[in-house]
Structures are given as C-alpha cells and as structure tokens.
Amino acid sequence: xxxxxxxxxxxxxxxxxxxxxxxxxxxxxxxxxxxxxxxxxxxxxxxxxxxxxxxxxxxxxxxxxxxxxxxxxxxxxxxxxxxxxxxxxxxxxxxxxxxxxxxxxxxxxxxxxxxxxxxxxxxxxxxxxxxxxxxxxxxxxxxxxxxxxxxxxxxxxxxxxxxxxxxxxxxxxxxxxxxxxxxxxxxxxxxxxxxxxxxxxxxxxxxxxxxxxxxxxxxxxxxxxxxxxxxxxxxxxxxxxxxxxxxxxxxxxxxxxxxxxxxxxxxxxxxxxxxxxxxxxxxxxxxxxxxxxxxxxxxxxxxxxxxxxxxxxxxxxxxxxxxxxxxxxxxxxxxxxxxxxxxxxxxxxxxxxxxxxxxxxxxxxxxxxxxxxxxxxxxxxxxxxxxxxxxxxxxxxxxxxxxxxxxxxxxxxxxxxxxxxxxxxxxx
Length: 428
Ligand SMILES: Cc1cc2nc3c(=O)[nH]c(=O)nc-3n(C[C@H](O)[C@H](O)[C@H](O)COP(=O)(O)OP(=O)(O)OC[C@H]3O[C@@H](n4cnc5c(N)ncnc54)[C@H](O)[C@@H]3O)c2cc1C
Description:
Its EC number is 1.4.3.-. The protein is of the alpha/beta class.
C-alpha cells in the first residue's frame, strides 16, 4: 500500500524525525491495540506501558498525521465547555471531579516533555483576549471559576494596557493570562511521544489503516495486510475515523479549521507582535488563535468549516483575519497554509465510553483538545487497569445528535455559528 505523507505544513517541514515506521504485515497479539497515533492514542500508550501492558498502535497514515500534528499548538486548560457548565449537567460532586481534572492535561504534557526530553519548542504562557466588554466579563468569571477549582497562582486579568503589553494589536480591550498555559510544536510533540512509546517497548505501525474491528472476548483488529488480537482496544481516530465504528458517528461532526504561517519575522517585528512570546486565542464563538514558532514565524489559525470540506484557498480565508489583528504584517509573505479536522459534539464535551466489555473510545473534544487528549490517555489507561471513577464521570456526559440529521446538520450548524458570530460582532 502506498505511504501517506504528512500534510504539507510548517510542522511537517520542521519535523525532528522524518523516518517512516513499518506497516503491519503480520498477525500478532498484544494486551492493548490502539487505533490512531494522535495524542489520544500516544498518551494512552505511554500510560499503559507505565502500568506494564504491552501496546500496539496502528496508524492509518503517519504518527501525528491528524489534528495532533497540525494544530495551533496552544496548551489551553479546562475543556471546550467550562467546569460550571459541566457541573450544571452532572451535579456538584461529579462537577468537582471535572474541576480537579481540568488542569491535569497541561501538566501531563509538560511532564512528558521533561521526562522524555522532547524537543518541541515549549514556551510558557497563554492569553485569552477579549474583543468586547461582554467577553471581558466572561474572562473575569473564568478566573474566579478556575481559582475556585484550585488553579491558583497562574491567572492574571489584563486591562487594556496589560493586553497591549503582551499583544501588539489594537483589537483587544483586555484579557486573561494563564501562566501555566503555553505552546508547542505539535507534530514534534507527537513524534517525541511516539519515540518514547517505542523506547519503552511499545510497537507503532504506520500506513496501517484499521479496516475492521471484530468484537469478542479477544477482539481482533484487521488492517489490509495483517491483524492484531488484543485483550483491549482503544479507538483514538477522532475526526478521521470515517465510520469505522458506526456507533460513534451519530453524535459528532468532523469540522475543519485552517492555519497559515508567515516567513520568519525579524526579531524586532516578532517582539512587537508578541513581546512575551505567549500564545493567544480570542474569545469569539469562531475564534482566531496565533503564536510565534520557534524560528519566529507567526502561526495564525481560525475559521471553521462544518463537515470538514477542504477549502480551496486557505490564505484567502485566514490572511484577512491575521491582518485585522496585525495590519503591520501586510507585506509579510505567507509560506505555509493547511487545514485539519477536529471532531465537534453538540455539547462541545468529549464523547467517552465503552463498546462491549473491552473496546474503549474517547473523541470529540471540539477544538480544545491538546490538553484533554493527554488527560484522556491517562483515564483510558486507568480504566483498563481497573480504576474507573474518572472514566465513568466522562462516560456519564450526555450526548445528542446534531439537529437536522446527517443531511442537514452542516447547514444547521453553520446558521447557528453565524448567529453567535453576529452576537460577537455586536458584543451582545
Ligand atoms: C488546525 C487545528 C488547530 C487546532 N488547534 C488547537 C490548539 O491550538 N489547541 C488545542 O487545544 N486544540 C487544538 N486543536 C484540536 C486538537 O488538535 C485535537 O483535539 C487533538 O489533536 C485530537 O487528538 P486525537 O489524537 O484525538 O486525534 P488526531 O490527532 O486527529 O489523531 C487521530 C489519528 O487516528 C488515525 N486514524 C483514524 N482512523 C484510523 C484507522 N481506521 N486506522 C488507523 N488509524 C486511524 C488518523 O490517521 C490520525 O492520525 C486543533 C485542531 C486542528 C485541526
């Protein structure tokens, strides 16, 4: 089968490790077979190896080929819906548990980077930037909420002058700095995690798409050229699973978001945009996110394409957004553009659960997945090891199909997004 390369991106061009792994061409056995080598799969593998399980990861393309190797690289704490909204759904006691977990994914990432000496341009500090008073009010609420759940000593509200000292743009009226957030080269993080999996005896096969999962006491996972008999399976294909497990399709929708990267900026220009080298995301419903790369390019992302159709001209969509934030970049060349898919759920909370006795899944973190997927890996490893409390909390989150069914969910969601975008523009 022909090999599937990484999408052409700044990340692929600056990847630390370009060696291709072998394809599965055999029938083998393992304790846990993981489908997908993104952060969910790799974090699961690392945590399972630590617990003494043998692990085999099957990746349809390359390690980090999906969202994990294409994202904005922003380490954002909590979930795509915040702890209070979760508490509203699950009650105070379970809500408290989510509060404890909301800051763990970021810690796991930093621990993995330190432990395995992963070179991925880690920088500390992330900013939520407010465009209007209503958004600033949300940030004040978020600070109080996160501190109530123990996230102390990391957060700082920024007034107009404060945000001006960390983002060289006229767009924002204030913000919230999370010093424990930060940013990374996402593909190099995934590649470093994959090397750590292999260093601990885990096996990763690339260009090995799973075509069938045979359920049973010892499920068998089939690729075109081989098979894996396992005691447990973890499904970690997220937005790229393409209906492999039909039960997982109905309540989630793949969505695209696009990223552009400038040529390297001179030191003075780079420091004028982001003087502290923090990453930034705004507070709009369809948000913009940006940061500097290790070699001082501006990486700028935004937009959502419901249903994940690939847009024809990414630069035409994202460059105007970048220039609205930083008009001073009008003569700067864009060197890379790419798109990637994340998986949206109606509640924006992840879909976590078990099929039969031994097939586990986590998907659909709806945008903010860099930290959550690392937490998910630990929770999935723990449940396989017999500790189910935190898995059960996630599995208890209710999920509903998108309005409009399979045919109309894309236009319905676009109308919903238009409504919220208008509210953002009007500040209501
Ligand atoms: C452009 C973009 C920007 C983003 N920016 C941010 C950000 O700045 N901060 C943030 O928190 N989140 C961000 N996200 C979201 C975040 O990247 C994702 O939530 C996260 O990476 C999902 O990880 P995952 O491992 O679950 O899925 P993925 O990384 O998508 O990995 C799934 C893997 O499974 C493989 N696979 C699928 N089906 C099969 C099969 N049948 N057999 C074998 N393998 C299979 C795929 O090839 C893929 O490699 C962004 C997403 C995108 C697309």
